[in-house]
Amino acid sequence: MLVAVDINIKRFFITIQNINKSAVENRFALHDELTGLWNQHALLEHMKMLILEAKKANRQFAIYYIDLDRFKYFNDILGKQAGDEILKRTAQRLQRLNLDDFQVYHVNSDRFIIILNGNQDDIEKGAVLISAIFNEPFQIEEEDYIIASSIGISIYPNDGEDEETLIKHADTALSQVKDSGKGHYRFYSSRMDVEFQQYILMGKHLRRAIEKNELMIHYQPQVDLKSGEIESFEALLRWNNPKFGNVSPLKFIPFAEETGLIIPIGEWVIDTVCKKVKEWQERGAVDFRVAINISPKQFKAPYLPKLIHQTLRKYDLPASAIEIEITETMMMDIGNVLNILQELKDLGIKISVDDFGTGYSSLNYIKKFPIDILKIDQSFIRELNISQKDVAITKTIIHLAHHLDLEVIAEGVEEQEQVKLLQSLNCQKAQGYYFSRPVSAEEIEHRYFY
């Protein structure tokens, strides 16, 4: 078998002579069986030749390292068959990109690589187009699912002159994207290596954060828009480390989720909040509740209702004193979620859905699940006073909540105009910097209780 790659034309071609059993075996050695794309082995072979040609011609090319955000979660919830279908459709979308001189590879599970020859403008355009194809939902069993992508990009020769270095640096850029919220792309820069080492070091410190008393809970009030009274708060985790200072939750919570540290941290949060609420009640503050955020990994633990029940008993707290807050995307596994939510509901605990309108696109779960509160995502509130579309979406969510006898809370309120609009739309509660930043328990006591 003769394999020849011509990198002067707009596609990679393989010329096969002597098609026989050996040729077929070699084809499978270079292709991914599921998607039909080139595989990791083919990628390395092609890159070696491409680097030689690019060096002779003094030109550049880009490596796009693409990861499907939360694919494992979708695969676990929807099943392997649905997961495979998502991968195949992703491959088809990538192959249909409106780009010149590119090739697509499926290198590992939910990861793809694209090589694109071109100048800086071509490479920027490629990043935008690749991101855009994930805006369209994947329809699985008549339900629509949004699966975003994280993309790390390296460029030959600036970011490396051999295949291993280029892939490594694209992967480093990808890690930076995933650590900063996912769903976007980033180009590699040398400072990322330093930042990655800091990230690893941060993880070591986080493992000892509980025993060193570095974690704390801040509380943000939720204000009744009619009376101005405060009857509920959201508990928000904070980390103050001697080396890193006040670390953003956007940095350390994803790390905790990925490593499993979120389980002991989450248990600490539940215990700490319940202990504080009991302390406040004993000092005379009784007519309020506190919302506790539950992470996806924590929520999937079957012992969660039992843990919460035991903690309530430990501090002799009524279930009405706390609220459990989950996100839309945690509700796709209807059977498992319904069981856990029903157990919590049977305890007398209120359930709120955070970031409403941004996750799982079906409204089916609102009908099926024992939900009490919808929280309108701040992305709809941010431009409420200038965007008629955001007004329409917010109005629809409020209207839906009222008809289903659900409480509705607007998040991220920062301006008086937003408050007035929400009042005119009959939104019940709001929280955000306009009213108060998240503050310590001591500050809550000083402002609202004693």
UniProtKB/TrEMBL annotation:
Domain GGDEF, chain residue ranges per copy: 59-190
Protein name: Bifunctional diguanylate cyclase/phosphodiesterase
PROSITE patterns, alphabetized: EAL (PS50883), GGDEF (PS50887)
Record-linked Pfam families: EAL, GGDEF
InterPro entries per record: Biofilm_reg_signaling, EAL_dom, EAL_sf, GGDEF_dom, Nucleotide_cyclase, Rev_trsase/Diguanyl_cyclase
Record domain EAL: where: 199-450
Species in which this protein is naturally found: Heyndrickxia ginsengihumi
